[in-house]
Structure formats: structure tokens, C-alpha cells
Amino acid sequence: MRDKIGFVTGAASGIGAEVSRQLAAAGARVAVCDLNEAAGMELARELNGEFIRCDVADYASLEAAVSRCVDSLGVPDFAHLNAGVMTVGAGESFLPIEDVSLAQYRRIMGVNLDGVFNGLKALIPHMRENGGAITATSSIAGLNGLPFDPLYATTKHAVVGLVRSVAAANQGTDIRINAICPGGVDTNIIPDALRAGGDFGMMTPATMAAEVVDLLQQGANGEVRVKLKDQPAFVVDAADLSGPGSANAASGLVADD
Fold first, then answer.
1. Which is more confident, 58 or 250?
2. From CA 47, how far away is CA 57, in angstroms rounded?
3. Which of 15, 75, 10 has the alpha carbon at shortest distance from 255?
4. Fewer CB atoms inside 10 A, N or C side of the chain?
């Protein structure tokens, strides 16, 4: 990855921060994109990269972030569309679907789904000529369900469908588009109520980031890869949503961005 350009959303913490670190360690220059200016700028300084303030739910903001990356660093070779939220914050109580406000609904859809659409729309025209890879963060909840947060599961199902469809539409080009479906990852969007229940198979962000970097480097176009704690990663075929470890990929496991 020497002299390659990385572009990561949701990069100031969690999986995104570790992906940024691992890309930089491999020699890439990284655009650290996030709304959290303090943490993002600190990470960019650590990596000798560039912090770009970016609201992924706003297409104009994400398009401007891509343009700034192109102008300052170059056209991305690797992009990780990682920004994500759950319906409620980590310290808040779970909500039945009928108690979710429209503002909460629009926020989670905006970040988790619009953020991937906006990223693909902004990145693909720049990356088409030179090729490269775009990996979106979905979740094991995007293949199963998540009773305590149905909207999170909905957005992650949609990300899988979007990635597979856009990848198929770009088959034969030099752009690879794929998705990672983590089980639980120990980052700051995990609800406190889940943490109180003890260890439910959470991985470190660094473990998850290694899978993302591998996908960026050599994942197939349209690949949907699952990674659970203490198990080898496996690919989920579109026609068969079972797979090694799928019995453990239950709704108690959540992805964390």
C-alpha cells in the first residue's frame, strides 16, 4: 500500500480509527473523515494524514470531503464507508419500534444507509479510471435480525443489498465494492445494557480492522464477508445466508462502527 490513498468515514474512533492506523502503517496516506473534529484531527496528526470534517448523511458534505481528498492527497485507492450509529445512544434505553421518533428514524437511516449511498455516489466517478476498492461496514445484524434495534438491522440489511447490487452494476470495471459484516466489536456505540450482560463475543476494533484492510486489498467485487470472534472469516453467498458459525451469528451480536 506504499503511496496509496485511503479514505475512511467514521474514522475518528472504533473500527474506522483502527482501519486508518493499519492503512497508514502499510504506507498509505489517509483521509480521516468524521464529524468529531478533536479526535479526528488528533488521529490525522498521529498518522501524518489529513482530517476532513464530514457528515456522511449530507451528500454535499461527503462530496466535498472526497473532492478535498482528491485535491490534497489524490484519488482514493481504498475507501472504507464505516460511519454508523444505533437508534439510541449507548447510555439510553432500548425502544420498541412504536416509540422511535421520526427524528431518530431519519438519523439512523441518514448515517447508516444514506452514508453508504452518498459515499458510493461521490467516490465511484473519481475511482473509475484508476480502479480500487470500496468496503462498506454492514453487520451480522444485516444477515439476521436484532430485536432490540430493528432499525439498525434494517439499515445493515440494506447496505448488503446496495453493495451487492452496485458491485454487480460495476462488474468488469477495475472498481471492487464489497461489505464486511462484523459480530460484536468493542467500541462506543455498544449499548450499556448489552455491556451489563457480560461478554457476548466482542472483538477488538483492531481485529475487525485487519479484516477490512484485507478486503480492501484482495476482497472480490460483491463479496460479503462475516467476521465473528475467535472464528475465521467467511463469505456469505447471496443465495445462501447460512455459513460456518452462522448459528452463533444470532441477534445478540451487533456490529459496531
1. 58
2. 26
3. 15
4. N
Is the pLDDT score of 110 beyond 70?
A: yes
How large is the average pLDDT for residues 138-156? Answer: 94
pTM for the whole structure: 0.91
Alpha-carbon distance of 57 to 73, in angstroms, equals 23
**Residue 24: in which H helix or E strand, if any?**
helix 14-25
3-state SS class at 79: strand
156-166 CB burial, b ≥16 within 10 A, e <16? bbbbbebbbeb
Residue 183: pLDDT band (50, 70, 90) is confident
CA–CA distance, 190 with 169 (Å, rounded to integer): 34
105 is catalytic: no
* Spans of all domains in the chain: 5-248
Q: Point out the catalytic residue in the list 49, 117, 152, 179.
A: 152
Q: The C-alpha cell of 148 is what?
A: 432490540
Q: Is residue 13 a contact partner of residue 36, using CB atoms and an 8 Å limit?
A: yes
Are the CB atoms for 182 and 256 separated by under 8 Å? yes
Residue 153, C-alpha cell as written in the block = 438491522
Q: How far is CA 107 from CA 101, 144, 155, 160, in A?
A: 10, 22, 11, 19
The answer for residues whose C-beta is within 8 angstroms of residue 170's C-beta and 6 or more apart is 124, 177, 221
Looking at the domain 5-248, which fold is it? Rossmann fold (3.40.50)
Q: Which amino acid is at 153?
A: A
Tell me how far apart the alpha carbons of residues 93 and 108 are, in angstroms, rounded to a whole number. 16
For residue 250, pLDDT beyond 80: no
In one letter, which amino acid is 142? G
Give me the pLDDT at residue 249, please.
40
The closest of 187, 177, 235 to 207, measured between CA atoms, is: 187
Task: Return the pLDDT at 195.
Answer: 65
